[in-house]
Write a structure and sequence with these properties.
alpha+beta; eight-stranded mixed β-sheet; single chain; 22 helices
């Protein structure tokens, strides 16, 4: 966009163009650099404006979507019906809320309206410092004790929520004296100004949802009225051009991905998980000579090491192994004089600063968490409970397996489980038959179904297991990767249905985002098979791409590598620079297949024909597909086509043959009704139609590189949006009519008149 960085820093909703754009619904990889830079500049200004606490990805989305105004107004002019906000009561029980939820806290008189900017688990903790019971580290929501899980269908987990009462501007803020009275009485807020609730989940799996998935679900359900309001700077319905539920969910997921990238990829901020803090704020905290300054944080890192390191030499034998679990929240509360830094949103900032201090210690002074002098290994074991739980173990050499010490492993809970019992309710029976890997939406075929994408090799050594497998469309769409059964067997000793692991992607000759190179994913076991879930596949990881996988025995790190071709090839207009399986590419990269679904909806007749031949035909090893010509009409239209459709079909086939995308062949049909190619002697001849991939070699010197000239002045589309008018100005009748049409299109049920002192800017095009 044409807005300068300075204008982006000072962006005011309803004055400047919205900072969210249609391209952002496809995620950060589809967002032009200029649009991403503008969004990042605004979000960095939001972080600096809200100096009291960190900004979570969901909170950053709220700011950009609902129009957070800098300088104190916040959402004061936002499109909210505050009476519809979910209600919370201190020590009460309520449906679980994600970070980013807008809520109403009951007080018996004037309610408190707030945005939840941080939350953590807070099972009853010992009061003597940071040491916590081992079983609480990594425990599921329905855990009741060491290795014990509740049988309730809807588990309730005790959670501490940090509300920000300033976000709706001065009009909804209560006086500080009244807030202090609430904190002192500890009836509506606890002494730190927080709310502790029994968060009720519909099932245990819901409690394990990623922050982004939980927030998207909340937006589409409990916050739906605000989400779809026509009064927001730009509605998700406008950004997508559709009100279909699945499209809205995909668009919100893409917007959250874009916001997360803008918030966490810049140099001005540092991140702890989904939370971002200004680097200047972190530096100021370290320079502070009082509580929670550099001295206190150094004392914490030292205590993590001292908690398990041997202090005296035994007269006989060697010291036995020792393990300690230190929780950040209880440790902070044990610091003398730190009370002022633990109240309100300051607590969230203190938790993030402390975790970042330990992170810097591990990255700078240890090898994979192992401190060489003491032999103690320090790792993050739980990122949610008590603000984070760090595990210290001696001797650490036995655990230096290459796993990332900053990926929560949940060993505290796992260590309480019997090796023979499942870690989760409803875990699969180890003796059951493994579930079949679902095929990637290959349709029922009139020709025999071949096995495609089979494993090409498996190498088993004493230290590692390596195998190769082509990426399938189902893997891309579901964010998963199947494991070889031998690897899954290597994890059976854990007795756990799932656990967090580290995934490292290598793409020689290609481009990967930093978030794609190293990922925290979930390993799930099912009988004798296993799968990695939550994989963020790069945009150019297409179905059929060969992946070489490697797992070091005993570790929790998986490595996936692509193999670069000597020269790239072009197949159907797609440039491919890495080794691929032509059969999988033909089947699963057919028109209508992709990350957003697998459907022929909206395809013209030519693409529908190509889709049918590639999906239903018999495959050859080099990716050709042959289909019985007589079944093509039903393969394209699913039912018997009308005469007009037959005419369109034949014209499309003739054009594709003329373009050499398809070719004609002759086969035969046997007595059993099955077609064959080449034709068999003594069988009835039948016409076939075939697809040919025709890979064309494109020398690297001829492919587009970083130095290629990009067209300038590209035109882009701007959706209609509300804009605040200067004093004394009035909207025209045409603008009033345009706003009423806008309300009709986005599905607003009532209130179709322009708000006072606002006009409506209709959709238009601009040039960059």
């Amino acid at each position: 966009m044409t807005t300068s960085t300075a204008e982006a820093d000072d962006w005011q909703p309803y004055v400047g163009d919205p900072v969210l754009t249609p391209a952002m619904t496809g995620g950060h990889r589809n967002t032009p650099d200029e649009e991403m830079h503008r969004l990042r500049s605004y979000l960095e200004a939001v972080v600096n404006d809200r100096r009291g606490g960190p900004v979570h990805t969901a909170v950053a989305f709220n700011a950009a979507y609902f129009g957070y105004e800098l300088g104190g107004e916040g959402y004061g002019n936002g499109a909210f019906d505050i009476e519809t906000f979910p209600r919370l009561t201190l020590n009460g029980e309520a449906p679980a809320l994600p970070v980013g939820a807008l809520t109403r806290i009951e007080t018996g008189s004037d309610p408190l309206f707030a945005e939840i900017i941080y939350k953590e688990g807070c099972r009853p903790a010992p009061s003597d410092g940071g040491d916590v019971p081992a079983w609480t580290s990594g425990a599921p929501a329905d855990a009741e004790g060491p290795g014990v899980r509740s049988s309730a269908a809807s588990p309730v987990r005790r959670e501490l929520l940090v509300p920000d009462f300033t976000v709706f501007g001065p009009g909804l803020q209560l006086p500080e004296t009244k807030h202090k009275r609430f904190r002192d009485r500890q009836k509506w807020l606890n002494k730190d100004g927080h709310v502790v609730v029994g968060a009720r989940y519909s099932c245990a799996d819901d409690a394990d949802l990623d922050d982004t998935a939980a927030f998207v679900r909340h937006l589409l359900t409990r916050q739906r009225e605000s989400l779809l309001s026509a009064l927001v700077p730009v509605s998700v319905v406008q950004l997508t051009g559709s009100g279909r539920e699945e499209r809205l969910e995909d668009a919100l997921t893409g917007l959250l991905d874009t916001v997360a990238h803008a918030l966490h990829a810049g140099d001005a901020l540092r991140s702890w998980g989904h939370y971002a803090l200004a680097r200047t704020r972190i530096a100021a905290g370290l320079r502070h000579e009082g509580p929670l300054g550099e001295v206190d944080l150094c004392d914490l890192t030292g205590s993590l090491e001292r908690s398990t390191a041997p202090t005296v030499r035994r007269r006989h034998g060697i010291p036995g192994p020792r393990t300690a679990y230190t929780a950040v929240g209880p440790w902070l509360r044990a610091r003398n004089g730190a009370e002022g830094l633990l109240a309100g949103v300051e607590y969230a900032a203190s938790v993030c600063r402390t975790n970042l201090a330990v992170t810097d210690f591990l990255r700078g002074d240890t090898d994979e968490g192992l401190r060489s002098g003491s032999g103690v290994r320090i790792t993050l074991d739980d990122a949610f409970e008590y603000g984070g739980i760090w595990r210290s173990h001696h001797p650490g050499e036995e655990e230096a397996d290459g796993s990332d010490p900053l990926l929560p492993a949940g060993r505290g809970w796992l260590d309480t489980l019997s090796p023979t019992e499942p870690a989760e309710a409803g875990a699969p029976d180890p003796g059951a038959e493994p579930a079949a890997e679902p095929d990637a939406a290959i349709a029922e075929q009139p020709l025999p179904v071949e096995q495609i994408g089979a494993l090409e090799y498996l190498r088993v050594a004493d230290s590692e297991i390596s195998w190769q497998v082509p990426l399938r469309l189902a893997h891309v769409m579901d964010g998963r990767f199947p494991l070889n059964p031998r690897v899954a067997y290597g994890f059976q000793w854990l007795g756990a249905g799932s656990l967090p692991v580290r995934l490292e992607l290598s793409h020689p000759g290609g481009t990967l985002e930093a978030s794609e190179e190293v990922q925290q994913v979930t390993l799930e076991l099912s009988g004798e098979s296993g799968v990695l879930r939550g994989v963020e596949w790069p945009i150019d990881f297409i179905p059929g791409l060969h992946l070489r996988a490697q797992w070091h025995r005993g570790g929790t790190v998986f490595q996936l590598t692509t193999v670069e071709l000597e020269e790239p090839v072009e197949v159907d207009g797609r440039l491919i620079g890495h080794r691929y399986d032509p059969q999988v590419l033909t089947r699963e990269d057919a028109p209508g297949s992709g990350r957003d679904g697998d459907s022929g909806d909206g395809l013209d007749t030519r693409k529908l024909v190509l889709r049918a031949v590639r999906r239903l035909g018999r495959l050859t090893p080099d990716g050709h597909a042959l289909l019985d010509r007589s079944v093509l009409p039903t393969g394209v239209y699913a039912t018997a086509p009308a005469p007009r459709q037959i005419t369109e079909l034949e014209a499309a086939v003739a054009e594709l043959i003329d373009r050499r995308s398809l070719y004609e062949a002759v086969g035969s049909r046997g007595a059993d009704g099955q077609p064959h190619h080449p034709a068999r002697e003594g069988e009835t001849s039948i016409p076939l139609i075939g697809y040919t991939p025709n890979p064309v070699v494109r020398p690297r010197s001829a492919t587009r590189g970083p130095g290629s000239v990009q067209p300038l002045g590209a035109e882009y589309f701007v959706h209609g949006f509300l804009r605040r008018l200067p004093p004394g100005s009035m909207p025209t009748d045409a603008q009033r009519a345009a706003y009423r049409e806008h309300c009709r299109l986005v599905g607003k049920a009532d209130g179709w008149e322009l708000p006072h002192r606002y006009t409506f800017v209709t959709a238009h095009s601009r040039r960059r």
